Amino acid sequence: xxxxxxxxxxxxxxxxxxxxxxxxxxxxxxxxxxxxxxxxxxxxxxxxxxxxxxxxxxxxxxxxxxxxxxxxxxxxxxxxxxxxxxxxxxxxxxxxxxxxxxxxxxxxxxxxxxxxxxxxxxxxxxxxxxxxxxxxxxxxxxxxxxxxxxxxxxxxxxxxxxxxxxxxxxxxxxxxxxxxxxxxxxxxxxxxxxxxxxxxxxxxxxxxxxxxxxxxxxxx
Length: 220
Hints:
Rossmann fold, 3-stranded antiparallel sheet, 7 helices, 11 strands
């Protein structure tokens, strides 16, 4: 599938899948969306270490990278698992210039390590941050009560509706520990109902630039 680098509304870049007319991040602002959805309404809920995070759609590595930056500021220990069915090549990721956009050029080697480290093996990216990348279909996730927080950042239901079903959210529910949270940029009623059907308590929250709402789900 053809991919190209585009610049989003806040000046940060993302990858566009031209055949699908779908992007890895919001065209209204890749960095703004990532901070709003996954940090403000996800990581900010947790004040104590360690935190176990599962990302559905590792993609460009932006969400993992900003999580690491925030964890260092807050002195949190994070164990991060990123699942991706179609890994982004480092040759593509480095063109996104996220360390430059975030004004953390000294962390450029960390961003590179996130992409070039081996898959299926836990790596210590920093003293307070471990990363394991798993290349597999989301349907194959079978972890049980392992995570405190899930970043659900799959491609949208318009192009991959099979990723936004009751079956998938049941896997997410099972993977979370009690009082764990799932956050996503999505706000469709069908997505909310699928979450509720498996037992999540779901709330609508103000969305990032360009979106009126987003969803956050809690496992009781």
